[in-house]
Amino acid sequence: MLGFEIVRQLVAAGTPVRVLDVQPLPERNLVGVVDARIGDVRRGDEVLAACEGMDVVFQTAAAVWDVRTPRGMYDEVNIAGNGNVLDACRRRGVRRLVYTSSMDVVVDGRKPIVDGDETLPYPARMPRDDYSRTKIIAEKMILESSGPELAACALRPVGMYGPRDKYHLGTIIGMAKRGVSLRLGDGSARFSHAYSENVAHAHVLAARNLWPGSVAAGQAYFICDHFPAENLFDFMERFLRALELPVPRRFIPYPLALWLAAVSEVVAPRSNFNRFAVIQTCVDHTFVDRKAERDLGYRPIVSREEAFTRSLAWLRTWAGPHPGST
């Protein structure tokens, strides 16, 4: 989702692009336009070859949390893979590295975050979930690597959505199609979102404003979207209605949902229903991006309405018709 949008924006600006990915290019109109290579960040020789002659590296590859992902994969991709990228950048003389981090690196799972900014510390205790744990370690690696030879920065998108999003939008749509129609919490919690094209634009801006000794070097930036933030289920409701899927009306109170999630972690440890997911849904997690606006000149380039329209168009092709729709 994000990597594709970064490539598309760079190509539109006339920038030569090389891609290293575990999958082929998703769009035929990019075939022959970019230097697309099949490879894996876990294999250092492939990363080293991909970085040959590059001025900027955008590191968006990551093992994102999924019940089907083996636990060891997070360390292999998010930590060792990033180590391969850093090593390749140094050996190939790359001067700029833009790393895709996550808002989850500051979520401690115990207290709400309201209008959080970059002054928030990492959690005092390392999170239990492997995704957040490895993203924290990786972000620290990237930022500590920034110096006179290699300028590096980290962007922390909030809840990202858009075309090709099978994780955020896809999870809720998939549950609705299976007949799961429940809300978690009382609807008061707010959660920040960011549209994928806007996040990609922030990455391109970061590269333009990044060089050894620049204000962005060694810095982390939250990347948000349009304000104010709203409840996750309210955000999803427009998509569900447009797709003629049932809108959840019944709700599970936060304390009960948290207890049930704790039980689920014991009886079904690889379930999507866990305490981390419940806390992010039932407790405020909102952020601001004033630092990115100040240092990078970032502002969203796609309106909220247009982001909805483009995301919905993709969802219609991906999700297909609901059995009960007319």
Describe the structure.
- Helix content is 41%, strand content 14%.
- It has helices at residues 2-12, 44-50, 71-92, 130-145, 168-177, 196-208, 232-242, 254-267, 275-282, 290-296, 304-319; strands at residues 18-21, 35-38, 56-59, 96-100, 113-116, 151-157, 159-161, 182-184, 193-195, 220-223, 250-252, 285-287.
- Helix 1 packs across helix 6, helix 3 (71-92) packs parallel to helix 4 (130-145) and helix 8 packs antiparallel against helix 9.
- The chain has one domain (2-319): NAD(P)-binding Rossmann-like Domain (Rossmann fold).
- The chain has 326 residues and is an alpha/beta fold.
- It is globular, with a radius of gyration of 20 Å.
- The mean pLDDT is 90.
- A four-stranded parallel β-sheet has the order 3-4-6-10, sandwiched between helices. Strands 1-2 form a two-stranded parallel sheet. Strands 5-12 form a two-stranded parallel sheet.
